[in-house]
Amino acid sequence: MKDTKVKNLLSAEKKRQKSVINLIASENYVSKDVLEALGTETTNKYAEGYPGARYYGGNEIIDKIENLAIDRALKLFKLNPKMWGVNVQPHSGSPANIAVYQALVPRGGKIMGMVLSHGGHLTHGHNVSFSGKFWKQVPYTVDPKTEKINYEELKKIAKKEKPALVIAGYSAYPRKIDFKKMREVADVAGAYLMVDMAHISGLVASGVHPTPFKYADVVTTTTHKTLRGPRGGMIFARRDHGHVKTKKSEPTLFEKIQKSVFPGMQGGPHMNQIAALAVALKEADSRAFKKYAEQVVKNNKALAGELKKLGWRITSGGTDNHVFLMDVWNGGTGLTGKDASRKLEQAGIIVNMNTIPFDTRSPFNPSGLRLGTPAETTRGKKEKDMIALARRIDKILRK
Ligand SMILES: *Cc1c(COP(=O)(O)O)cnc(C)c1O
């Protein structure tokens, strides 16, 4: 690279990534093959439209790349291409969610989502995000006692508020989601069920977390978290009208989603991302990846379990997946989430501060930390490493 300034920054970032322990639950390390696909000539190509129906010439190879990503995505999640379609063009997870709301919920309509401070995502109707400005959030939280989802409570809210769409899937929820029960919540309101599996799609692909496809109408995901691909987003949608009564003459859910992504919201797809996604989807469709996903959960349980043994409060009492929340404030250490993440960063352990359910502190300096093991598991760490790491974290925080 001739640009030495950028070159130096890139190599500094590479070095930084190698030198730290990364417990950020939404990050991962992609393979050399995924990186290689990202840095290719596909980034030069305009491909507005879809395979076989582009607005630009010269897309015969691009079409093959996008179709490969589509086929691999459907295969990975064991979906019948006659029943489900997938759009692999969303530039990331947030645009994928916008596209769904735009397709299925009239402006100003109600979307029911978990509040941000309890583990939901900004795009689930928070008022600083487009999702809360153009649509109205019907909020739900976790249960104050168990810190888990109380599905019966959600049904009551859905019955009263009648949202048009219910969202399941979170950014900081350490437990398995019962999609059958979330379907019941949506049905109470006659609503669509959108599952946002951004965080858990790698676990779902491996069968380590139950699959949402039996119950959902639409499923969105990022591609760069547990799925371990390039940054990006995907939307899976049924090729019929899903669980909501609709006139026969209306377009199918998948047709609505396709239109909503392009021309509804985006122009040209990022074909280098889609090429890299095709590579990642093949990688994820393997025994090695299944083992990886199993190890992510084992490692996460080991890390949370040891921290619990050392006297730290883990919200909801533990974890079933790749992420957990540690309450550092209410343990009597006098540490806030910000203090704790700073102390750990000084020691080369990267985490993020996070609110805990019903947090009494502000999101800018909350009571908790969010930790997760997808990235360190990619680097080959095992349970014994997690136990040692928990002890290190404990020492650092108590110093
Ligand atoms: C990360 C995440 C997103 C958004 O992804 P971006 O790629 O950062 O836009 C959406 N939903 C959930 C639940 C997430 O965790």
Key phrases:
399 residues, seven-stranded mixed β-sheet, Aspartate Aminotransferase, domain 2, Aspartate Aminotransferase, domain 1, 2 domains, four-stranded antiparallel β-sheet, binds pyridoxal-5'-phosphate, alpha/beta, 15 strands
**CATH fold annotation of the largest domain:** Aspartate Aminotransferase, domain 2
Helix content: 40-55%
The unique ligands bound to this protein are: pyridoxal-5'-phosphate
SSE pattern: HEHEEHEHEHEHEHEHEEHHHEEHHEEEHH
List the helices and strands and how they pair.
Blueprint: H1 4-19, E1 21-22, H2 32-38, E2 49-50, E3 53-54, H3 60-76, E4 84-87, H4 93-104, E5 110-114, H5 130-134, E6 136-140, H6 151-161, E7 165-168, H7 179-189, E8 192-196, H8 201-205, E9 218-222, E10 233-238, H9 253-261, H10 271-284, H11 287-309, E11 313-314, E12 323-327, H12 329-333, H13 337-346, E13 349-350, E14 352-354, E15 368-372, H14 374-378, H15 383-398
Parallel strand pairs: 1-13, 5-6, 5-7, 7-8, 8-9
Antiparallel strand pairs: 2-3, 4-10, 9-10, 11-12, 12-15, 14-15
Helix pairs in contact: 2-10, 3-10, 4-9, 6-7, 11-15
Task: Explain what this protein looks like in three dimensions.
It is built from 15 helices and 15 strands. It is α/β, with parallel strands linked by helices. It has two domains: 34-284, Aspartate Aminotransferase, domain 2 (3-Layer(aba) Sandwich), CATH 3.40.640; 287-398, Aspartate Aminotransferase, domain 1. A seven-stranded mixed β-sheet has the order 4-10-9-8-7-5-6, with helices on both faces. Strands 11-12-15-14 form a four-stranded antiparallel β-sheet. It has a two-stranded parallel sheet with strand order 1-13. It binds pyridoxal-5'-phosphate. Pyridoxal-5'-phosphate is lined by residues 26, 92-94, 97, 121, 123, 169-171, 196, 198-199, 222. Pyridoxal-5'-phosphate binds next to helix 4.
